[in-house]
User: What shape does this take?
Amino acid sequence: MAKKFRFGIIGCGMISDFHAAAIKDIPNAELVAVVDVREESARRLGEANHCAWYTSFKKFCKHDMDVVTICTPSGLHKEPALEVIKAGKHLIVEKPLEITLKRCDSIIEAADKARVKLATIFPSRWSDCNQLLKQAIDRKCFGRLTLGDVYVKWWRTQAYYDSGGWRGTWKVDGGGAMMNQSIHNVDLIQWFMGKVDSVMAMSALLAHKRIEVEDTAVAVLQFKNGALGVIEGTTSVFPGLLKKIEIHGDKGTAIVEQDDIIFWKFANSTPLDERVQKLMSQRKSGGGGASDPKAISHVGHRKQFEDFLKALETGGKPLIDGIEGRKSVEIILAIYKSAKTGKKIKL
Assistant: This one.
């Protein structure tokens, strides 16, 4: 009989519901415990999923679990992560891994030393269209990559930022539209285009009050392979548009809008064309998280959890481990540094 992996969740806010739904969908996984400093949050998630709930982190860590997922605010990942690793449990951390490279490295190094598996959540990599796009890049269908662009023109109300004291703060949120919302597509662009060599950026706070961070940012990138790119990330664009990623080369172009491929044209036919045409005829994107952070699917989380469990069973490495999770944080911190100094920043 296949092993059933026992999961725990730290932090019982909005994103924890997606983790719980993903775990519920996996036959060889079960949610056995949750913890939050707020009793009402812990009780809500625990009772909804018929599992133990705690307000004591120490008691939670003593629960019999194989894997723990962290759903606390971004800048509060390191401390519980280190305790979970110390307890010998495998670890999945919501994006971003942490909000500084030093804090990211602390988690990565501790996991390596303790020989526990570590993954960073980036569900967008698991969509059918992004998987096909990555395959086309790996097969050199684009020829030489020349341009890679990301557009995350989203909207968040003032009430969204006012709903939590940590939102819109440097200390806990780690940034604004780039670090919190656009990071999924920042991860995708470096996954598709390769390592970023340098960035130049500008940022501003234009549509919101009482927050410390940007709600609008634009960056120009140069990749190690010589290609150029643009990242636009906002929470200031009403009513919020579907996120878009464009990959261009001297032999082809592909454009993905949310969960759909909307353009796919190459100088030469590719082995993927038939699958892509079928996907293009079955457009399925809703609003995504363009204006409502709750309007996302848990399917990407489920696929990533399944990949993580496969790594546990085989002794392999998760697709998006700690090192992979660190890459987008490094790019975004360089964007912030460039916006602050007005200088080109090399990574």
In short: The first helix runs from residue 14 to 24. The domain at 125-293+328-346 is CATH 3.30.360.10 (Dihydrodipicolinate Reductase; domain 2). The chain has two domains: 5-123+299-321, 125-293+328-346.
